[in-house]
Amino acid sequence: MLNVENIDLYYGASQALRSVSVSATKGKVTCVLGRNGVGKSSLLRAIVGHRPIKGGKIVLEGDDISAIAPYDRSAKGVAYVPQGREIFPLLTVHENLRTGFAPLPRALRHIPDDIFDLFPVLKSMLHRRGGDLSGGQQQQLAIARALVTRPRLLVLDEPTEGIQPSIIKDIERVIRLLASRGEMAILLVEQYFDFARALADDYIVMDRGEVVLKGTRADMVEEDVRRYLTV
Fold this sequence. Notes:
Blueprint: E1 2-11, E2 14-24, E3 29-33, H1 40-48, E4 55-60, E5 63-64, H2 70-75, E6 78-81, H3 93-98, H4 114-118, H5 120-123, H6 135-148, E7 153-157, H7 165-180, E8 185-190, H8 193-199, E9 202-207, E10 210-216, H9 222-227
Parallel strand pairs: 3-8, 3-9, 6-7, 7-8
Antiparallel strand pairs: 1-2, 1-4, 4-5, 9-10
């Protein structure tokens, strides 16, 4: 589904990504791990088109999308749940979900029924403002809004950040279910090791803008990974 090949990314004169490669496969979860400030979020911003790359390429289902705008990537099936959720606090839950219609053809501009099977709490809160929800409920809303776009690639940036343990379990269940359907690839940035290990089919670990470890869950060595997660 996705192949990121040797990309470089800069903020001014500062290089944030150095020849980073990662892939995501339909029906699987790929996790990107690392401390704060090592380039994980920059990698996701490059993939969804929020930051331009200086070298390498980003390929989605065989098409080079490196130079196209974020809204065109969204129309091609890339959905992004940013760190901090970024829901619209003054819009209702229902209105937030409807913002996911933007990249869709008119015939698909409706909220899929399974959204409320995945996140039943949202159904009872459709007319509440997004800003009145708890952090965990806002995270569920942000993921649901991304799913409204019918993504083929779901990109999640630290979905457990600031979330209570019970909702972390709910989000883990949803991600596992989405992957098991085999309809999309999931790329997940995470610092919470146990959450990532439970979900990852494949993983990479980043440090100082580079990939320093990669592999499958089966060959993951916990001590090696944790060494790059501790301060």
